[in-house]
Amino acid sequence: MVCSGRRVLHSRRVTPVGPGPGRARAAGPCEPGRVSLGPLGNDDATPPATPQPPEPPPRPPDAPPAVVLIGVSGSGKTTVGALLARRLGWIFADGDRFHSPENIAKMTALKPLSDADRSPWLAQIGTWIDDEGVAGQACVVACSALKRVYRDVLRDGRPQVRLVYLVVPSERLRTRMLAREGHMFAADMLASQLAILERPIPDEGVYQVKSMPTAAQTVDAVLRVAHLEQFLAPGAEQPADSGF
């Protein structure tokens, strides 16, 4: 699709994770300081305060920026990520598309993924970011990245990556999940994700953005907090607003 002279990537099947660095153009690691949240304790508590948003990460002149929207299922990563990419004229990928068939089968059966399951998945996403960078293409990815070590994998050797954590109250997450049809995660899976979630702490340099009533309002907040407004094209079209 061409949108305001820019391209947006649509979903297509991604080759299952393997040892090779295959390029996937789809639309789609436990550490000290971990917070025990309980079955519903996502973000009802106030996130750790930071005096100011972290500064943008340094990036080599030849490395296009990459944004990774992180959070549990139902936080709006895909909706916000796709709209953010459209606003910026960047390419978008949904991290779920990089899962192997084995991972998808486990999630469909409501079985939580292990660190071993997620390792090649994260590597595949990192490879996609690298490939887009080599092609000179800035990108946006939606990826849960529930643990700090997972986030470290995505940023290792990639100073251009900005992580944005979408903060959503747990009851709103439950409401969204119950309203979904055909999603690989049932609402019951939310508890398993919340159980392993390691909410970002200030020394990670992760941008934290509270979910707003609409997707477009949340995108505006992401643009501001993550210092992305500089990448907006002059006169860029603002898509129609929508809820989650």
From TrEMBL:
Q: Region annotation Disordered: residue ranges?
A: 1-65
Q: Quickly give the catalysed reaction.
A: D-gluconate + ATP = 6-phospho-D-gluconate + ADP + H(+)
What the entry lists under Gene3D superfamilies is as follows: P-loop containing nucleotide triphosphate hydrolases (3.40.50.300)
EC number of the protein: 2.7.1.12
According to the UniProt record, one GO cellular component term is:
cytoplasm
Keyword annotations:
ATP-binding, Kinase, Nucleotide-binding, Transferase
Q: Which GO terms describe its biological process?
A: carbohydrate metabolic process
Q: Give me the stretches of Pro residues compositional bias.
A: 48-64
The residue ranges flagged as biased composition, category Low complexity, are 14-34
What is a single molecular function from GO for this protein? Answer: ATP binding
InterPro entries documented for this protein: P-loop_NTPase, Therm_gnt_kin
**Metabolic or biological pathway:** Carbohydrate acid metabolism
Sorted alphabetically, which Pfam families does this protein's record hold? Answer: AAA_33 (PF13671)
Family from the record: Belongs to the gluconokinase GntK/GntV family.
Alphabetized PANTHER family for the sequence: GLUCONOKINASE-RELATED
This chain's protein is named Gluconokinase
